[in-house]
Structures are given as structure tokens and as C-alpha cells.
Amino acid sequence: MTDPWNPEYEPGEADPEITSALRTMEPPAHGYGFWAMLDARLAAEEIPQTAPPPPPPPPPPAALPPEPPAEPPLAEVIPLSPRRGPGRWLLAAAAALLVVAGIASITRGDDTKLETTPAAPVTTVETTTPLPTTSLVPPEPTSVPSTVPRTASTVPVAPGTSKPGVSPTTVRRSTSTTRPGILTLSPAGVGPLRLGMTPRQAAATGAVSRYEAADPTVPSGCGQASADGTYRSGDFTALFVDNKLVRFYVDGGSRLATPQGVKVGSPSSMLSRVPGTRSEAPHPYDEAATDVTFMSGGVGYQFTLNNGSVTRWSVGTRAGLDLTEGCS
Questions:
Q1: pTM
Q2: What is the DSSP letter of 139?
Q3: Measured between alpha carbons, how far is 60 from 39 in angstroms, rounded to an integer?
Q4: What does residue 43 show for φ and ψ, rounded to 5 degrees?
Q5: Helix H segments across the chain?
Q6: Beta-bridge partner residues of 169
Q7: 254-277 as b/e, with b when 16 or more CB fall inside 10 Å?
Q8: Would you give the distance in Å from CA 64 to the centre of its chain?
Q9: What digits encode the pLDDT tens for the residues 248-294?
């Protein structure tokens, strides 16, 4: 902008005259009310004043917390047709009905006939007689362990009778120490009888009769006892030597057999089943008979064969089987 009072003045250059005058000017002495008068004069002359600086911009608003995610619209849960109009609402309604029908069918199963069949009228009957109750506890089993003895139990007297009845579950057990039905004789013995028992021990089992000495006048400890108790007298004979059971004799009519099934009357071919070391010798009294012995350690079997079959057999110790007749 060019100064109208000094046409040669160029913007940006200092006027030498003004500079010289300012240097020689003395500060004015301002009296009371000078500045007020100056403001009034400036206002009268309409001299524009410097505008105040603009106010600083307001601070940015505080960051708001993030909003929770909105629930997906129904259109995302159940996809609808992109077509506009009432058709998509019909599809949404049909899908909802299908879901409800599926849940109802799962809940009630196949019992749809119960909904359409009218229920029969219920008639209430009042009675003073107590109804029988059904116990959910299972009844006590009637089987009885073989080791527990059972006694006869009585039941109430039936009308018109004078004696009480007996329960059908009555089980009677034998008090004998022998075991009935065991008809197997082996080197282990028969029933409760064992080789090596004394006459008193054998009698205590109840399986043999009273001990009889071979010669009561000679205290040799030799004698015998017959089968007794649950065994027949002809099943076996127990031989005692020096007061020890050393041999069991089995003759015709006996029910006993070896564990392999050999008994009186069995063919000689069955002896191949008997274990032990086999040896043969002619019978001391019967020329047509043969004694076949099977030993396993200190005990074994001896069979008398005649005409190809067993006529007599015994079980005993080696010393007992070597005896020819009785204690000799």
C-alpha cells in the first residue's frame, strides 16, 4: 500500500524523515483523563480498532463408551426371501410354525391319538375297606445255602384242622459227618476216611462200624471194620495194621469205583486209564487170576483180573497191598 503523503515511499522501507522526527520527539506529558479523551476522539473519528482475537476452539467432546452389540434382527436368524412385500412375512410365519410343531412333536412323542380321543368320565368310588398295597421290596429268596442248616417252619393252622401244617420251603439236612453220594475210592480215601487213621479216628467219622480185632487174645493191633453210616456194609472193608488204616477192600456187590470209573465187573481194558507204575503177578490162590498193581509213591491200586474183567480191587499203602490175606 502506498503512503498518500509520501508517494516515493515503498512498503517495507522506513521513512527517514519520520524516523528522524521520532528520534527527536519527547514523550508527551499526559494529564488526567488523557486516555479517555483519546478513546472518545477515536470513536468520534470512527477509526477502526484492532478486533479482539477469536476465542479458542472448544475442546473435543469426551469419547463415549462403546455401545453393546445389538441383537441380530430376525432376518439374520431366519433368512427370508429377498423379495419385498408381504411374501417374506408369510415365509417367516411358516418357519415359526414349523419350529413350534417340531418342539411339540418331540415333547409328546407319538401319542397324538390321546389328544383327539375324549377321556372317559372318571367315577369316584368311596369305600371304607382299605385297599391292598403292593410292596416294591422283592421277596426274600427261598434258596438256602448248602452250609446253613434250616429247620422245619410251621404255618398257621388251616380252618377245620387241628394240626399246624409244614411250610413247603422246609429243608432238612443230615447231621452225619459223612457225605452221602460220594462213591469214589482212591488213594486219598473214601468219604471222610483216610489211610493212616487209627481205629478210634475212623469210628469218629461214622463211616465204619465198630472195630473188630483179628485175634482178640493177641494185642497185635490188626483188625478190620465194615462200611457203615451212609455206606452199605458191602461197599468196602477197612483193614487196620498196627492200629493204622492201611487198605480198603472192594468185592462184588460194592457201589464204589475209582475216579477213572473202574469197578467190579469192568473190562481189563479200562485199567489203561489208571495212573501209576504198573506191575503184574499171579494171584496166590487162584491160578486163573492175575493181580495188577499201580503204584504212585507210597500208595496205589491193586486189581484182581479173571477172565478179562475185574473181580476184586483195593486201595492202600505199599505195605498194605503186599499183604496176601488179612494181616499176613
A1: 0.46
A2: P
A3: 39
A4: -70, -35
A5: 16-24, 34-44, 74-77, 87-108, 113-116, 199-204, 318-321
A6: none
A7: bebbbebebbbebebebbeebeee
A8: 61
A9: 999 999 999 999 999 999 999 999 999 999 999 999 888 899 999 99
